[in-house]
User: Which sequence fits this backbone?
């Protein structure tokens, strides 16, 4: 099967316009009734020759705890590609409502480093629409490489859940997977996250989703308080793993309980060495030190 | 053998032949400090420069150093304001020393004072200087307060702006929360855990009991109080701001009183929390100095020679993801140092192990007594060994005296030099003392002194 030609956008779409449009679309669907189809748009979206703003890069690196090197952090590239990914979810033929989707899982392969002077070609598409016991999930795939090279240096798969949305013809898994009890380990780190954590990450990532910005804007979308961006948390864990990860690595994270702000998050980083004693893999897990509830877990692994 | 630790030549391994250039001896003439005050106490309004100058002036008066051009003065502070970039030079210019005395500032967290002693002793040994004053000072009361990142960026951008509209535009970025100042914290930047929380992890790992910690704290207070009562500190200290003894000293404390204190660190760990304000050092203000010299320089001025600085070793541990405890670097430094000097723990007459927390000392001793740790982490054939506890911190240490970070090394070196001199030769060998200081960032510095 050949994929259809991508829709090439002239520039990076504006996230704020996408969110406004998504809200309008949600209202329209509510009024007119949803045209429920269980197929995903096959077309991908692409932007060519994207330029990185170095001031924005520095601000991102400082916020996340990365040294401000010329290499783009893997999480920064995710943020860079995010508006394009959202533009696919914002298409009229995308069957799930964009607003309120929950980020369940993120899987990134950083195959080769990219530096801020590289112009980047970015594509995004959706695939793998499938059931979930609480709704319907979908994968958003983004791919990034040096402009015009046709090479793939970075690939990200973000899995989102549209909670409570069940589409015809898509079966939901019969039962919830039994969750193993989480035994709280000794922490190797402790994060003190202020109430402005979401706003600070929004400023460097451009993701001004209202659930992250303030108590009021979060309440408007049904949350009791604002929550930290999942990718902010995962990116800090990646930064904590540190230079051992090298230039090419796979970075996976599963999000569990949301992190309501302000709060403290305890973190454990465990290191696994290969036969030669070289770094092979770091596992990370974060939890609420008061309740012991797990917020997220994941791995960084050599590619 | 490959070990996941910090290898060193084991007892069976051939000693590494190193060509050491001919050097001479560096001797400790004496020391002077001001009593240490609890933060917010007698020195609340005194600056680092004030306190360092006070300690320095006492040293100058004791050894007749007025107008003397010292080879070099090295001192530092851990909590240091950027305007104090030349803290030590300013203190020297404000003292009775010759204004032609060169200095350098240094900073190695809590090991600052000891590293200053080692650095100057090495210069004396190499013949680069004839005399040196090592020191350290810290104020937890007069700590520098930092403006927020937001305000700082606005101020710096304003400096770069050229036109009024630019300046107005920059000013408009200011938010009310940017005006809140930030006090310095004791958290490790890479982990967000405070030093006490880090030690609590190590304490749990080595299963150090609450009672053992309280007992060590009690001994520290008793030993320090006894040393004061016997007049031991009379020629090691000058009163300052009304204090004649360390403000933290509780001569009348008891196991019952210490047992009554609530744990403050490690409360969210699985194990029982055991670390209290009583068995942890408090935030403290103070300064300490040590006078070092060549034999010739001391003899020419008819000054006492208490002890020689024999050798020193620094170590660091990978604490960030918990491979080792934050304050455990001396556990690796001491075996390396003793091996180089062909000594064992039994050859040491006095141990001065800095009491960052009672549990730090006890974890260090536990690691040395552990067979598996000795084998897998130190590369030895078994446990490194145990020490005679009656030789440990015999005139008290930081739990009782307090711990103004950079001043602690000078306090310990001067105290130990005096003890070694008093003990003198026995069994045909000089008395030996070991100093061990752990520091933030997973670092540690240790040194051996020998009586003269």
Assistant:
């Amino acid at each position: 099967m050949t994929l259809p030609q991508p829709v090439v956008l002239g520039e990076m779409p504006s996230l704020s316009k996408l969110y406004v449009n998504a809200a309008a679309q949600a209202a329209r669907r509510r009024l007119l009734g949803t045209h429920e189809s269980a197929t995903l748009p096959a077309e991908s979206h692409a932007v060519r020759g994207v330029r990185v703003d170095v001031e924005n890069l520095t601000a991102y690196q400082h916020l996340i705890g990365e040294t401000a090197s010329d290499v783009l952090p893997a999480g920064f590239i995710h943020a860079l590609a995010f508006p394009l990914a959202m533009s696919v979810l914002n298409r009229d033929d995308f069957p799930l409502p964009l607003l309120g989707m929950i980020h369940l899982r993120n899987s990134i392969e950083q195959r080769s480093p990219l530096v801020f002077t590289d112009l980047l070609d970015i594509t995004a598409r959706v695939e793998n629409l499938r059931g979930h016991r609480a709704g319907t999930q979908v994968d958003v795939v983004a791919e990034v490489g040096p402009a015009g090279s046709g090479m793939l240096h970075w690939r990200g798969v973000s899995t989102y859940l549209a909670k409570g949305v069940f589409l015809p013809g898509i079966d939901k898994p019969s039962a919830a997977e039994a969750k193993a009890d989480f035994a709280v380990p000794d922490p190797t780190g402790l994060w003190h996250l202020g109430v402005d954590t979401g706003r600070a990450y929004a400023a460097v990532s451009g993701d001004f989703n209202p659930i992250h910005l303030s108590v009021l804007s979060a309440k408007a979308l049904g949350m009791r308080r604002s929550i930290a961006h999942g990718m902010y948390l995962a990116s800090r864990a990646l930064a904590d793993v540190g230079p051992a990860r090298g230039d090419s690595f796979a970075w996976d994270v599963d999000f569990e309980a949301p992190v309501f702000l302000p709060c403290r998050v305890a973190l454990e980083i465990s290191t696994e060495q290969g036969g030669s004693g070289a770094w092979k893999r770091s596992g990370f897990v974060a939890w609420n030190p008061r309740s012991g509830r797990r917020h997220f877990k994941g791995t960084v692994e050599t590619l | 053998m490959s070990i996941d630790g910090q290898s060193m030549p084991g007892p069976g391994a051939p000693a590494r032949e190193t060509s050491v250039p001919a050097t001479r001896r560096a001797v400790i003439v004496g020391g002077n400090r001001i009593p240490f005050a609890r933060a917010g106490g007698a020195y609340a309004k005194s600056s680092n420069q004030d306190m360092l100058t006070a300690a320095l002036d006492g040293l100058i008066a004791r050894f007749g150093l007025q107008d003397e051009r010292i080879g070099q003065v090295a001192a530092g502070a851990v909590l240091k304001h950027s305007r104090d970039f030349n803290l030590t030079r300013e203190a020297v210019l404000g003292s009775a020393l010759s204004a032609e005395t060169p200095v350098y500032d240094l900073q190695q967290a809590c090991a600052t004072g000891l590293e200053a002693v080692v650095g100057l002793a090495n210069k004396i040994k190499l013949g680069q200087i004839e005399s040196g004053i090592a020191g350290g000072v810290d104020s937890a009361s007069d700590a520098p307060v930092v403006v927020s990142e937001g305000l700082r960026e606005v101020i710096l951008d304003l400096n770069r702006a050229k036109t009024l509209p630019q300046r107005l535009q920059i000013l408009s970025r200011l938010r009310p929360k940017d005006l809140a100042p930030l006090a310095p914290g004791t958290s490790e930047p890479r982990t967000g855990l405070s030093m006490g929380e880090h030690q609590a992890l190590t304490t749990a790992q080595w299963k150090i009991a609450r009672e053992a910690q309280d007992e060590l704290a009690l001994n520290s207070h008793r030993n320090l109080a006894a040393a004061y009562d016997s007049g031991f500190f009379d020629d090691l200290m000058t009163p300052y701001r009304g204090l004649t003894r360390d403000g933290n000293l509780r001569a009348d404390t008891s196991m019952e009183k210490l047992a009554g204190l609530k744990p403050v660190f490690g409360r969210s760990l699985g194990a029982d929390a055991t670390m209290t304000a009583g068995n942890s050092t408090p935030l403290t203000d103070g300064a300490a100095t040590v006078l070092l010299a060549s034999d010739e320089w001391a003899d020419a001025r008819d000054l006492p020679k208490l002890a020689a600085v024999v050798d020193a070793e620094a170590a660091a541990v990978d604490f960030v993801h918990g491979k080792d405890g934050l304050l455990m670097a001396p556990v690796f430094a001491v075996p390396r140092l003793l091996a180089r000097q062909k000594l064992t723990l039994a050859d040491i007459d006095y141990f001065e192990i800095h009491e960052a927390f009672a549990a730090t000392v006890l974890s260090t001793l536990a690691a040395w007594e552990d067979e598996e740790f000795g084998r897998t982490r130190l590369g030895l054939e078994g446990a490194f060994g145990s020490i005679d506890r009656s030789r440990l911190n015999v005139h008290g240490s930081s739990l009782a005296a307090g711990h103004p970070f950079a001043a602690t090394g000078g306090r310990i070196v001067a105290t130990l030099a005096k003890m070694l001199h008093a003990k003198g030769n026995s069994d045909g060998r000089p008395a030996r003392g070991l100093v061990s200081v752990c520091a933030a960032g997973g670092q540690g510095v240790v040194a051996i002194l020998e009586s003269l």
Remarks:
- Chain B touches chain A at residues 2, 4, 177, 190-193, 197, 201, 204-205, 268-270, 320-323 (CB under 8 Å).
